[in-house]
Model the fold of this input.
Amino acid sequence: MKKQKIKKSTLKELFKYIKKYTPLLILSIIFAVASVVLTLYIPIIIGNAIDYIVDADRVELDKISPLLIKVGIFAIIIALCQWLMNNINNKITFNVTKDVRNDAFDKIEKLPLKYIDSHSYGEIVSRMISDVDTFADGLLMGFSQFFTGIVTIIGTLVFMLILSPVITIVVVVFTPLSLLIAGFISKKTYSLFGKQASARAEQTAIIDENITNLKLVKAFSHEDEAIEKFDKANEELKKASTKTIFFSSLVNPTTRFVNALVYAGVALVGALIAIGNISVATISVGTLSCFLSYANQFAKPFNEISGVVTELQNATACASRVFELINEENEMPDKDNAIVLDNVSGDVELNNVEFSYTPDKELIKNLNLSVKSGQRIAIVGPTGCGKTTLINLLMRFYDVNKGEIRVDGYDIRDITRASLRKGYGMVLQETWLQNGTIRDNIAMGKPDATLDEIIEAAKASYAHSFIKRLPNGYDTIVSDENSSLSQGQKQLLCIARIMLALPPMLILDEATSSIDTRTELKIQGAFARLMKGRTSFIVAHRLSTIKEADVILVMNKGNIVEMGNHEELLNKGGFYANLYNSQFEPSEE
Amino acid sequence: MRRLLVYMKGYCKECVLSPLFKMLEAGFELIIPLVVASIIDVGIAGNDGSYIIKACLIMAALGLIGLTCTLFAQYFAAKASCGFVAKIRHALFSHISSLSYTEIDTLGTSTLITRMTSDANQVQSGVNLTLRLFMRSPIIVLGAMTMALIVDVKTSLIFLATIPLLALVVFGIMCLTIPLYKKVQNKLDSVLNTSRENLSGVRVIRAFRLEGNEKNKFHQKTEDLNKAQKFVGRISAIMNPLTYAIVNISIAILIWSGAIEVNSGNLTQGEVIAIYNYMSQILIELIKLANLIITITKSVASANRIQGVFEVQPSQSITLTDNNEKTDNVVEFRNVSLKYASSPEYTLENINFSVKKGETVGIIGATASGKTSLINLIGRFYDATCGEVLVDGKNVNSYDTEILREKIGVVPQKAVLFKGTLRENLLWGDKNASDSDIMRAIEIAQAKDIIEAKAQGLDFQIEQGGKNLSGGQRQRLTIARALVGKPQILILDDSSSALDYATDASLRREIAKIEYNSVVFIVSQRTASIEHADKIIVLDDGKIESIGTHSELLEKSVVYSEIYNSQFRREDV
Done:
């Protein structure tokens, strides 16, 4: 019951996308009907023509020629109809695909971070790419096949009944037999497919393990043993595959055999009727030949339709996954009268902030903090203590559950997100580069920056020296997943971004974690200059880098357990003092 | 693709028999129109009921024989295709195993895995379908033509025009569309990458308020994709209608010329029907053939990709020489420089140092200063671009790789164990090691508690990726694995990162006591891990900044003191 409901809503959703193309769809259906009916009519004309070819000197050539010209004209009309129909179907399919993908992408830009954080990228991407492809192909192509299939079956039946009801019975009774057999075989092969899949998975695991760690295998000269293990799995897979492929390839020949029987049956009954051995209205040789060509084709739409049914099921499943994404709730939009924050001075205030990612696991509770413009706030604590959560709240990637955050006296929920985020410059531990040139990547926060400004920013972040050594310098194409840059170099580029944008407030989340200690020292200097006069929030492991902060927030399990400057906290001898001392434990000997 | 055909060896019989049986089946199918013709000309014309029944039974029997033939054909095809691909997979796996690090870097492991899995599968179904169907269609097409010509040459002359025309249409459109489909695929990839990028960079994109830009970019990309799809769609949509029109017009023509022939007494009505049936058969086969060609094109592309891997030859060659220099240096670097194939810059420049038996060498330097590159040269995982690396006084290029690597025990940065028992994993170091050898290695590696905690001991089953062990446990076991081989040279590449301080210290103490007096290389970013080494090599941007002991370096090395100070603030301690 529930499943049915989902399907209905999916179809409704789909209908919305197709609606735009209703005229095209109707046109496509008209062309389909026209081409199917004419296609079925051609054997009848040919049958008529054959009936005029009786014997030597008894052929009525003058009657045959107009029939054959008709065949030629019809063939051309059918071809045109089919071609137009194909194009229309393509247009509908590809346009719907595009529309759905665009909607899905627009949704990604508006989804709350909560959704994106809790789903794997691969899953969302596969909804946008392969699911959309499957459903567009399956649903629309499936529909057209289904439709032409039905029209063909009905048309053939009508024509056959008009020509000879008795032979029709022969065709109608035997044809479904091939479907039964096909169904029977595929059910039997199902378990074989399962076996093949598990043999394949086993082998893939070995391949994956050995090739991913090939360097290790080679370091231990372990190649021979690896090959031996692989060969065993390979042999298993070979056996399983051979069986599976053989049994699954039986479907076609057996249905062809049933078809041959139908063909022989039609020939038998038809011929016997023709000579009057079966006492019904007699038929001509031309009609018999027409029947034979119908018998040859009749099984085809049945096979296609049975394939289409599974395809349609699959397609609706895919479609519902895509629509689920598109129908996700948007991030709460900016208020209509939201303030555009300009000239931020950088006073930040957190009042009674309460927040948790899931209602059953409370994280931040009753957090109060007042930061004056230009102050430096360091956030420290063990992993998982909620440091990054605080940044999520400041940037308004997530909204607080209770309480409020104010910037320059305004509740950030009353400010447009764009202007709030413009006020911050953010460098995260997880670097991210966009597919594009280094130059574009640095200019992200200031797209109209000149090359000189960009180089200046790169120099300030100590990225210039490695950039200029790259094959194309600032025009070198980089991307997040596939680039020759080291993690540290990527981080330098991310730092260069904010060195260029120079926003009034800074958020540095482990901004130098991948940079070697020496470069880090230099960068700390640059940061120190940058932070002058700017409100900054810094998350770091290395306590030495945050000692100079005006306020240190010590977090543990989502709560701020201590707050104060370095001296105060050390003297207090609490959590912070412990953390600090554990990092600089003197060496043993 | 051609080179892969070698692996067909051993399946020649199947490769011949499968199409042969297919041919038989096709042959029987081609007889059917003749039987129909005889029903019309003899049975119906002669009002002979029993002849008709007999003829129809023959048709049914032909169908049954056809079915039997196909079963054989399918069986041989399945056997040949699966066997062929199993051989390819074996050869490919061995080939990949023979590649050196440089080739692995260039090809990339994910590519290699795809070649071995999905590409191999694609080839398998391609071969299978080729054996089964690719032979059938031309046989039916040509056979139908031959049979028609046998029935009546004059009437069937149209076949000689139709078939080349159809072939031209089918192959012409294929040739046009295949490169276009590739373009579509590239455009789709770009759509995929943009989606992925926007998910992984969601925070940065929103922080820099680029949502609008990204939307426009994406819409542009889907628009491009859409245009490319429609363009190729328009061309490939021509194929079926055009072949249909050609065949039906040919039918009209052949019935016309047939009618004339019948009128002049050279042909019977049944024979005209037979020729007509042959033409219809051609149409059905052509549609199948077109679909088949798409599958085959894909597998040819896969086969070529696989062959591409085979064509990559291991770049390292061995110049076997016996001239050992008499020396007590176990490892020596002479003016060694290294430049990776993918990089424009030298990663290591002018490295000179030597190590004597029993010495411990620390290697320190910033990230990407060349530490791992340096130790990779010892086991000849890469070839030095210039200069010489000597192990026991002999250039590493003149060693049999296996003998060279037996001398070396490597503990890589990433602690990886394989699926299998603990013993199997530890035997990697030396496959002939006894259990007591293994236990000794485990003891040195401070991993005894791990074994003792497992009821199955050395038979403990490790899961894929070592998931059922903690990072620290895996790391100690990888150290044990390297020690099982009692290596002359032990290399620890930043491999105590997951160990706590006390374990790290006792590990170093135990290693120093090893009875076979290994040379030990310790790569680290932390001065604490190497300060007791006999020799510390400080790398800076691929060059040796200085070499010395801890206390010497504190005096003379700027880089070393900087690193040391950044980790141990004097004033804090």
In short: Chain B touches chain A through 162 residues (CB under 8 Å). The longest strand of chain B covers residues 329-338. Residues 153-266 of chain B form one domain. Confidence is low (pLDDT under 50) at residues 569-573 of chain B.
